[in-house]
Structure formats: structure tokens, C-alpha cells
Amino acid sequence: MQLTDQWPVISYPEWKDTLATVHLWTQIVGKIRLRKMPWLNHSWHVTLYVTPDGLSTGTVPYQHGIFQIDFNFMQHQLLVITSTGRKEVVELRPRTVADFYNALFEKLKALDIDVTIYTLPSEIADAIPFEKDEIHHSYDAQKMEDFWQALVKIHNVFTRFRTRFTGKCSPVHFFWGAFDLAVTRFSGRDAPPHQGAAPNMPAAVMQEAYSKEVSSCGFWPGSEQYPHAIFYAYCYPVTPTFPEQPVQPAGAFYSQEMGEFMLPYEVVQQSPDPEETLLAFMQSTYEAAANTGHWDRASLECDLSRLENAYGCFR
Fold first, then answer.
1. Fewer CB within 10 A of the terminal residue: the chain, N end or C end?
2. Is the pLDDT assigned to residue 20 strictly greater than 60?
């Protein structure tokens, strides 16, 4: 892999088959974490995390200690490691979802990790159970690596944005249901019951996820219905004037169909300063949500740069 500071080009049509396959692979891994972790508010216990070589479950408890499952998109392997010092590897290559599922569960059995999952994919219409999916089998290593490198760039911007808030804020985490990276701020107030729905997603789970007022930003790679990588920003509940608020940069727009602000990835990728361009989108859409929702911004926001500048090198 060549080192570069350039943001990679992400073209949905060029890697959609790999995306569809890897999306399902991450669902298998994510559902394993879901089954083994204690339930955390807003389903934060199910997410994956961006790492220096891919995506990870982070540490997960099991009967013999802890284990971790890592997608390594540099070596193109799935690694399962345990606190007992054991490790198993599944190769990431063109292979069916069913083959990946069977191979992974064989490795888990070998490591004495006892887990079963609900095998119907979440948030996907007309889904095929993992163990029966012989349709999705693509893996373009370079395209997958490019996408992961984009996640690395975006993760760092999301992490910087997260520091400007003293109120409750989510980690920067990857939701395998929709295959998106997100960070969410909370006003601290309860929200009305959420009425939305998603395929193979219990209503109670959706309602708990949106039980508090939120302003959320994320990155999503696209779909057949919308074949473009985008950044998105939404709030819940949505105020009538939220869609009318001015946001930055040029190229951002409000989608009535999606009910959120959107910014094409290519606008950021082609910007002379991608980080600042993305930060402008995140900040302006947050302000649109906070101002129209009458958040207590004075008590929720902060600027700790003085500490970072003064004590960042303190030992």
C-alpha cells in the first residue's frame, strides 16, 4: 500500500459488488458482538470501530475471558484473538457469504467461543440468511482498502468534531446494519416515541435508539437506490424549520426524501482542505439542529483547545 495524504476516490458503481458482500460479512461479525455484549444505550454495544488496519469489534467478553474480531484490510484477513493467547484467521477473498459464515463459526468453535446468532441480515430488504447466501461472493482487495482508507480520514475528522461538546456524545463508531460511520450528539432531553422502521429490526430497538433528542452526522457508501457515497446529517425530532437552515459548504443540500442534509463525498474528497470542508458541514448542520430545537448550547458546547495547546505535551 502506498502512503498518501490524498483522500481516495470512492465510486459506488466500481465496488458495489464488494460492498454488498463485505456489508454482509460485517453483519455476521457485528451480530456476534451483539450476542456477547451487555446491552448499552442506543445499541452502542453492537458497533465496530475503525482501526489502523481495518474494523474491529473491540474486546468482547466470553466464558474464558475476552476475545476480539478484526477485519484487516491491509493483509485481507479476519482475525479472531482471545485472552487465552489463541488466534484463528479467516482469509478475506472472493467467497460466498455462506462460506465466510461457516468458516468463521468453525474458527469460533475451535477457540471455544460459544455463540449463536440470528442469521437473517438486519436493515436489508429481501435478505437471505447468511448460511444460505451463495449470491454475494465478491471481494476486490484494492477497492476495499480504498474504502477503509476513506474511513480512516473521516474517523479523524469525526473525532475532532466530537471534542467540541461536553454533553452526551456517542463514540465514533461503525454501524453494520446500514454500513455507515457515525457520531451523535444529544441534547439531554427525552424524544417522542420514534415511529420509523427498518427490515428485520424490532420496533422496540429502534425506539430505544431514538429515545433522546439527537443531532447525528455520518458517512454512507451508497446503494442501488442512491448510488453515491455521501455524508449525512439529521436530527430527531425534526423541527419544521430544520430543512430551511443554511448549511455549509456549497454542495450540501437537504433531501426531502431522506429527511436529512446530504453532502456528496466527492465534494470533500476534491476540496483543497477536505478536513475543514467536512467540519463545516458537521458544525453547520449541528447548529441547524440545536438552534431550531432550542438546545442549551451554552452548557453543552466547549472549547478545550487551550488545554490541548498548553498541556498536550505535558509529561
1. C
2. yes
